[in-house]
Amino acid sequence: MSVQLQATPSEGILGQTSLQLRFSYTTATGELVTGVNIQAKMNGQFKTLALFYTPLVQSNATLTTDGNYLTDRVTLINPTTTTSSDSAVILFSEIACKDEKEYMCQVAYARSSRSGTENSGVAHINVRAFQIPWPWTCILRGTSSLTLKIEQLDNNVIVRCQIVNQDVPERSSYKQTDPVNVYYSVRNVQVTKSSTNPFFPEGAGPITLKCTSDGNPAVTDYTWYKESKYYVPIGTGPTYVINNVVVTETDTYICVAQNNFNGQTFNMNNSIHIQIDLATTAHYTLMPITNMESTSTIYKTSSMYIEKGTETINVQMQATPSDGILGQTYLQLRCSYSTVTGEFVTGLNFQAKINGQFKNIAIFNTPVVPLNATLTPDGNYLTDRVTLTNPTSSLTTSAIMQFSQIACEDEKEYMCQVAYVSSSGRINTAYSGVAYINVKGNPEQPDILPSYVPSAGIEEGNNVVFTCTGDVGKPQGMFRWVRYRRNSNDVTVQETPYESKITTAAVMPGTCTYNGTSSLTLKMTQIDNNAVVRCQVVYQDVPQGSLYKQTFPINVYYSVRNVQVTQSPINPTFAEGAGPITLTCTSDGNPASINIDYTWHKESNTSVTLGTGPTYVINDVVVNETDNYICVVKNSFNGQTYNMNNYLRIQIGE
Question: Which of 68, 201, 480, 633 sits at 20 to 30 Å (Cα–Cα) from 52?
């Protein structure tokens, strides 16, 4: 017998009518079709939607209870013959969302020796929709999110969201933002002078200093200072004019630029040195060495100058090691400096970048000032966690901040400021480069065993979502998943890792380590019964051997299958009066079938139960016991009962 089910067309458009399911069959000589049913896959199981009859049974085709959702939307057409070729048809007059399913057809037939059933392959109806309001249809309403880390260059940027349907961008189907306004703090402060002269003679014309910067909102607040009197403003606005060009106006001129947004004030400065001399004064060339950013006090960020051929000071800041582990103790910040003959150091400051500004956190003194090193108010967060050691010499030495405990807030940029007196008696400051402490936190085991939904009553074909949470450390680690399929003896027969699953993470309150969450979706099959799913921490690309949690063995229900019937003794035929013939029935399923789940029947009279249990014994070995012996096995779960059968032919006599 040849059986085929076809949906024409295979795609149905919501609200349109031309679609039919046609079940066609062709019989062989001697075969007789007795009935046809069309089935649909619902909640993972094929259920009968419609019953069709051949002329042997004078009844109209009807919908079943499971097929009532088709009422008033389909026409059923019975086959017209019982032999040869024919078909049963479901003709749709209206397509609905719930018609998107897999369909199959089953035909019941009889032939001279026995009856049986034959199934078609699976046909699928795909439902599509055009220009129908979303709340009343099965078309998909999409939501997409994009996370961008906004930076200065994103000011005035436009972000567009465009629909892509069947891999083709819809050219006109997009919306975009207005230009995005991105605030950023003042930066790129530059100070220039109206003349390129390296120095100016007394009595020269006015010297105009100009200050430029970048920021959003644009900078409108400029303030000018002299380094020699850093606490006294000498002017405002983007320009400052030195009208009285006399020797006493020689100084480093500092421009502080400021902008404000979101209740915060940001400032940055830069400076230029103006040298005014008598006409007979010899000159040294001055070179700017460094220009540090700050928004706290002005004097600490001014440029440092070296008079060529006279003196220099070298300052270095180092964190050892540069990575600090939360709770561990060995880390020190060391500021080292060296001077030349005629220079001596008067004091040092350790600075840390706090809220975008370098601020003094500790003050150190040399033997010239016999005071203990102390924390400043901005450095009070270090109280009871650091030991400060002053330099022991004014020539070549260092100041040390020794940490006894590392905390999240120690992850900062640090630098060192040294105050010293030059051989000419001038008070100068010098700065180190920036050292950085990176705080790491070790991960821990996942919080609990991986959870999964549904947590009970899992059937073959169900999608199960597993979720794992826990501390994945800092820098952020991730979770990897492994499925271990096991046999009934708890021996692993298959190990499947899932390395690419995304771990989302957020900083945990009260600490700087990350709490990670990862999910894994698995479609459960028969061989997943007794499987174990493990969630393991991967930190800095290395799986952490003992940092995992795993589920208990998972119970997966599946319907009875693999029914086999065997006989003992094994003879092709039996003589009348031979000893008893024992038939044994085996099967697989979860839950396993018990005695009462096995029933025995003869094909010649299937309505009569011969016995129950996995074995049946033919004690009366006579010719009229010759028959096909059928074993029907069932199991039940989640309110449903499933059965399957197989048979064995027993021939007694000729």
Answer: 633
